[in-house]
Amino acid sequence: MIANSRMDAFRSRIGGFAFGGDYNPEQWDRSVWDEDVALMKRAGVNLVTLGVFAWASLEPEPGRFTFGWLDEVMDLLHAGGISVDLATPTAAPPVWLTHGHPEVHPVMEDGETFGFGNRLHFDPTSPRYREHAARITRALAERYAHHPALAMWHIGNEYGPTPYTPQSAVAFRAWLRRRYGTLDALNDAWYTRFWSQVYTDWEQVNPPEIPRSWSNPTRRLDYKRFVSDALLECFVAERDIVRSCRDDIPVLTNYMRFYRHADYWRWAPEQDAVALDIYPDPGQPDSRVAAALNFDLMRSLRGEPWILMEQAASAVSQWKVNNVKRPGLMRLGSYQAIAHGSDSVLYFQWRAGRGGHERFHSAMLPHSGTRSRTWREIEELGGELPRIAEAVGSSSTAEIAVLFDWDAWWGLTETHGLPRNDFDYPGVVTDHYRPLLQAHHAVDMVGYGSCLDGYRIVVVPNAYLVDDRFTEELTRFVRGGGTLVCSFFSGVVDAANQVRRPAYPGAFRELIGAHVDEYWPAREGESFGIGFADGGTGRADWWQDSIHPETAEVAAWYTTGLLGGRPAILRNSFGAGRVHYLGTRPDAGTLARVLLGAVAGAGVRPLLEGAPAEVEATVRSGADARYLFLLNHSETGPAGVPLPAAGVDLVSGAGADGTLTLPPLGVAVLRIPLPGSGAAPAGSAAT
To answer: Could you report the per-residue pLDDT of 653-678, keeping only the tens digit for each?
Structure first.
C-alpha cells in the first residue's frame, strides 16, 4: 500500500465511509438549498461533490467570476456538518469559450467536429482550452482552498475526448520525439518500410486518419498512448494549481468502467486516490461480475482503498432500456464496492434534475421526493453505514493476480490485421475472472509494470502485445516457483506491435514449453471436443493453436476437428514453477476446471469453503480484526454460508458462528478479531 497522509486525513475527517453524491445547486432556486441540506442530514450524507458542470455559472463571461452563490452553498453545507469535494468545472466548457474559440472543440477521427451541447467538448491539446481551464482552476483554488467545508479536490470529470486536430498533431509529434528521439527510431518502431510509409521529416507525421482501407497498426497504437498522456497532462496541470494553494487534502479525478482511452496504470500514481464511476446494468444478471472486476482493478491500481465516486440510486438514462434497480439491489451493490476496497458510497446525483439529458437518471432524492422507494433505501443505507465505520481504510490482499493492461487491450482491439479482429478484451478478462470470483477467491489485478512478488498464481488472458519488462518479471515469477495460467494468442508481439521471433509465442515460448506454427480461428458455428487424461471432457470454439510441445506435457487434446488428437491445453514445468497454457477458448466449465485446478495446485485456498456461487466473499483487514464481507446475489432464495470463524455481524449486531443464512440480496459484514488482539466476538460461541 502507498503511504497516503492526505487520504488518512480525509478518512479521519469523514469519520467513516463517505456517503453522498454530486450536488448541483446552480440548477435550482435558492429556496431549495435549505431543504437539500436538511434532507442530506436526515439521510446521513457527509460528503457532496460540487461544481462539476458549473463553469458557466462560475464564469459567465471570460474573466468575470460569480462566486457568491457557491460561497453561500459552501457555508450552508459546512453549517450542516457536510464536507465538500470541490470540482474544477473544466469537463464542460461554456459556450462563450467554444463560440469565441472554436479551435477548442475536438475533431473526431472521421473529421467531424464534436460540437457544443454535450460535455467533454474540448481538445485536451488545445493551448486555448488549457489556458482557460487553468484560469478558472486558479480562481477556485485561491478562493476556497482554506474554506472549512473543503475536504477534497475533484479535477475535471471522466476525462475522455480523443482529438484529431492540427494542434493535436503538433502535440503528437512532440510526444513522439520524446518517446523515440529520432525519425530513424520512429520509422523502425512503426515498420514504415511496409507500404512505403517511411517519414523523412517530423512535419509529415500526423494523427492516424481513417484510411480507405487499413493503416499502420503501431501508429494507431502510439496515438492511443499519446491521447492518454495528453489527457493526463490536463489533470496534472489543474492538480498542481490547487496543490499550490493547499497541499494537505486529496486531489483526484474519476475513472470509468472499462474505459479504453486512458491508461489508468499511468494515471493512478498521479493522484491521491483512485475514484470510479460505475453503472452496472440491473437488467443483466451477470453484471455484478464485471463490477467486481472493476472494483478489484481500482483497488489494485494503487494497492489501497479507493473511492466509489458515482453510481446510480436506481435506473440510469443512457441505455436503450433503463431498468430500475429492484428493491435491495442498490444496497447490495454499494456493499459490493466496499467489500472490494471502496471507502465511499457516492452517487450521481443528489437531487434529480428537471431538465437536460439526464432528467430521468435516478437520484438519491428522486422527482417523487421522500415518499419514494429509492429515498427510503437511501435513507436506510445512510443510517446503516456508520455501523461498519471501523472497516474504513482497511486493506485487502490476494495471492491470485489477473493481468489487465491498456497496452494489451489496445494491441488486441485497437489495431487491425490479426488472425481475428473481433476480440473483446474486457470480456476475455472477465471470463477468466468469473470462476475465481464464484469460487470465493481474492483477486488482484496487475499491469505490465507491476511487481509479482507475493502472488502464487498469475492469470494472463490474451496478452497478444507484451513488453519486455513484463516478460522478464513473469519469467522471474515462474522460475521462482509461481504458477502461470496463460491463454492463447499471448506473447506474440513486442511493445512496437512487431512479431517476436523465432516462433509464436515469442515472449512465452520457453514458459509454455511449446511453439505454435499456425493460428486457426474457428469458422462460424464451429466447435471442438476436448478430452483430458482422467476421462473428463469439454468443448471449445472460436480459436485453435496448432501447438507443437517441446518441454511441455499435454494436459488435454482435441477429440474432433482437423486438429483431432493434437494438443489443446499444456502443462509445463519451468524452474521451480508451473505453467498452464490454453491453446483454445474452452467452455466456461472447462475454463473453470483449468483455472481452479491451477489455483489449488499452487496451494491457494478460497476465502470460503462450501458456499454457493451466488454468494460473494471478500476480506478487508484492519489493525486488530478481519472484516469478512458476505453478499447474496440471489434475488429469490436465501443462502447458507459456512463460516470460517466466529464473529459479529456489524450490520445486524448479532453474533455469528457455524453457518450464517443470508436472505435474498442480503449482506453481512463479519468482524473476526485477529489472533492476539485480545478481543473475542461478542455474542458468538467464542465469547
So the answer is: 999 999 999 999 999 999 999 987 76
Q: Locate the DSSP E strands across 370-492.
A: 400-403, 443-446, 457-460, 483-487
Q: Which helix (H) or strand (E) holds 407?
A: helix 406-413
Domain check: are 594 and 630 in the same one? no
Residue 405 corresponds to which cell in the numbers above? 493492461
Q: Helices 30-43 and 68-79, interaxial angle, to 10°? A: 30
- Other CB atoms within 10 A of residue 258 CB: 17
Question: What's the pLDDT band for 189 if we cut at 50, 70, 90?
Answer: very high
Residue 57 lies in a domain: no
Q: Which of 59, 238, 304, 310 is catalytic?
A: 310
The H or E element spanning position 112 is: none
Across 338-376, b (16+ Cβ under 10 Å) vs e yields bbbbbbbbbbbbbbbbeeeeeeebbbbbbeeeeebebbe
Range 424-432 contact pairs with CB under 8 angstroms and sequence separation of 24 or more = 425/462, 426/258, 426/290, 428/461, 428/462, 428/487, 429/293, 429/402, 429/403, 429/404, 429/461, 430/289, 430/290, 430/293, 431/461, 431/588, 431/591, 432/402, 432/459, 432/461, 432/485, 432/487, 432/591, 432/595
Our CA angle for 436, 602, 631, nearest 5°, is 25
Question: What is the rounded CA–CA span in Å between residue 47 and residue 10?
Answer: 11
Among 556, 576, 601, the domain-final residue is: 601
Q: Which of 230, 296, 218, 305 is nearest to 258 (CA)?
A: 296
Instruction: Answer yes or no: 310 catalytic.
Output: yes
Q: How confident is the model at residue 2 (pLDDT cuts 50, 70, 90)?
A: low
3-state SS class at 381: helix
Q: Is 619 helix (H, G, I), strand (E, B) or coil?
A: strand
Is there a contact between 236 and 134 (Cβ–Cβ < 8 Å)? Answer: no
Phi and psi torsions of 345, nearest 5°: -135, 100
Residue 8: what pLDDT? 97
Q: What is the CATH number of the domain that holds 511?
A: 3.40.50.880
Continuous segment of H or E residues that includes residue 425: helix 425-438
Contacts of 300 (CB under 8 A, 6+ apart): 444, 445, 446
Cβ pair 218, 497 in contact under 8 A: yes
Q: Is 158 a catalytic residue?
A: yes
User: Which residue range(s) make up the domain with 629?
Assistant: 615-673
Please say which residue of 573, 601, 629 terminates a domain.
601
Of the listed 26, 103, 158, 379, which one is catalytic? 158
CA–CA separation, 608 vs 416, rounded Å?
Answer: 43
CA distance linking residue 293 with residue 313, whole number of Å: 20
Cell triple for 137 = 482552476
Confidence of residue 685 (pLDDT cuts 50, 70, 90): very low
The answer, as to whether pTM is greater than 0.85, is yes
Residue 333 contacts residue 300 (beta carbons within 8 Å): no
Cα(318)–Cα(348) distance, integer angstroms: 13
More confident residue, 585 or 113: 585
